[in-house]
What we know:
Blueprint: H1 9-61, H2 70-80, E1 83-87, H3 92-95, E2 108-113, E3 118-122, E4 128-130, E5 144-148, E6 170-176, E7 179-182, H4 185-191, E8 197-198, E9 201-202, H5 208-211, E10 213-215
Antiparallel strand pairs: 1-2, 2-3, 3-5, 4-10, 5-6, 6-7, 8-9
Amino acid sequence: MTKRFGFTLAEVLITLAIIGVVAALTLPALLNSTRGAELKTGFKKEFAAMASIPKLSYAHDGTDFSNWDADEVVAQFQDSFDVVKTETTYDKDALGLLAEYPTDLQAATYLVLNDGAILIVPDDYSKCTYDASAATPGAETGCLVYIDANGVNGPNKIIGVDDATTVTDIYPVIAGGMFIRPGNAAAQAVFENQKKLDADGPTATFDANKVKFTTHP
Length: 217
């Protein structure tokens, strides 16, 4: 009997086909997971830098987010971040965006950072202060700014607002008084490294005691 060593061409082709199918099924999920981790890291980096701004300002001249309107917040960010470009009106091409921003974010000032992220300060931001008795936890108009961790790249979706099954790269942040907080339950879950998701996104409970703000003139 003749012994056969190695594999036939047919066996090699079948094996390669199986490997290809497995890779096609698993690679997109792996890439999305890696991309999602990078976006979360970027969000936390900008969040940490942003958190120091009102504290340093208060120590310097007694002012914080409760004293600043949108233009003053932009000025604070320009002084504190490595800003390479500022756009005061929404223009997809001027910003170099590969995907449109949501309509709610098209009336704002956009600060493009050297590390690729974009900070978004809505025009309606209005001197927000901490208020432990506020009825609505952080959703008031005038208290939110946004961190686009992915910069000019897509998909330009807001975490906790847009489809939870897709990669989201824009994180809402509540800025009030001397504090900032994640702007919704999904952003808070990212900040706290909670990974469990359900059909509606992260299962974390939004901690209203941490994020209740109101605005004042």
